[in-house]
Amino acid sequence: MGFYSASQLVQDAQRHGVAVRPVDVTVSLWETTLEEADSARPVIRLGINRIGGMGKAAAERIVAARSEQAFTGITDLAHRAALNKRDLELLAEANAFVSVAGHRREAAWETAVVRVRNDLLDGLPIREERPALVAPNEAESLIADYATLGLTLGCHPMTLLRQQLSQRRYVQAAELRQMPSRKLARCAGFVTCRQRPSTSKGVIFVTLEDETGMANVIVHAPLAERQRKELLGSRLLGVLGVLQCEGEVVHLIAKRLVDHTELLGSLHTSSRDFR
Fold this sequence. Notes:
By secondary structure, this protein is α/β, with parallel strands linked by helices. Helices cover 33% and strands 22% of the residues. The longest helix is centred in the N-terminal third of the chain and has 13 residues, at 56-68.
């Protein structure tokens, strides 16, 4: 499954009824795991290794410390798991303290004032107080998720852009599968993959992702040369093309490409490119 990004796998799992739960210092292990569930639906718990920059040794100390006693707060966790300032910042940014400190901003505040580990304090009860802070909104949480985890368990980013894209007459990927072959259509999405097989005679295959799934785009060599900048530089790509339907397989044969990356603002996405 290494061909697909973690974000793609999570989005697909959620669309198929699999519950995916966030990184949480009170339950997550280093690796992503299956959890017991009350219902028949499978449940996946994201591992601490999803947090970019987080070390395995620190994660193992967290797991060991909580096995002895539940954490009372971030300061307690920091001391008993011997976490440094960077470890704490990464966990706060990833919203992994939600069970012990609330939302990201509350966790960030506590992390900023947490005391440096001091052996003289070991074993002493620790009490923490925090100010009331406004929780991040949906867009802020989404941007933070992608920055720290490379994915989100909240709404797909394209959901927040759908109104703007609809005004530009872009349809969802799922709608393409309901349209007849040879119909002119517009679709836009995150570029998740670009491929140019050696046997393709210059044809480039692009995969777009939106809140409903994937759209397969074929870009023939002449267009690829004319719009090389849009093709290779866009993270959010709009495509005007003609549908080619063969059974359940649907491709959009590109006639024009539009770079809409500016709509993403500070949201960072990445693609897997094989050229």
